[in-house]
Amino acid sequence: MERNLTLVALFAALIAALALIPKFTLGFGVPITAQSLGIMLCGTVLGAKRGALAVLLFLLLVALGLPLLAGGNGGLGAFMLPSSGFLIGFPVAAFVTGLIVEKWYGPSLTLVAAVASVIGGIVVLYIFGIIGLSNALDKSLLESAALVTVFIPGDLIKAVLAGFITSGLAKARPASVLSRS
């Protein structure tokens, strides 16, 4: 129990630390950040439940006003921005990513974690992000989907990185990859 709580808190801190990498905000109000890599890693390393809990802890801290989002944003107002759909989708993305890694014992953990990150950390996350963006900007779902295509190359790189990081961690400390235990 203590180990699980420690890892959940550690990964919430990892997501927050990834906000320190400078962000680049696009004209429609959604920033390009490294925090989605943290969401992917929550799922690939911690698994579905613990990964989602780590993200929920992070979002709770943001809601309480801690400036943990890229650019130092925090507070309930962060959930009213055009990017709020992505925030709401974070725990679901981590859960789906973790569930895939837990259930699919494919050819290699690198590939499994990368594919899981694409499905959970990109496809699932974008569904929430596009819906939120559509509501915030009063645009159609198709128009909002077109706006987020700029994120795809960077997120694909993050998914591959999540695969390599998870695999490397599993080789160095097999017991630390809870999605496989």
Structure commentary:
The protein has 181 residues and is an all-alpha fold. It contains seven helices and two strands, in the order H-E-E-H-H-H-H-H-H. It has helices at 2-17, 35-46, 48-63, 84-103, 109-137, 141-148, 152-172, and strands at residues 24-25, 31-32. A two-stranded antiparallel ribbon has the order 1-2. It is globular.
- Please state how the strands of the largest beta sheet are arranged side by side: 1-2
Uncertain runs are none
- Shape category: globular
Strand content: under 5%
Question: Residue-averaged pLDDT, rounded?
Answer: 93
Give the CA-CA distance, first to last residue: 15 Å
- What structural class is derived from the secondary structure elements? mainly alpha
Rg of Cα set: 15 Å
Organism: Sulfitobacter litoralis
Main location: membrane
Family: Belongs to the BioY family.
Subcellular location: Cell membrane
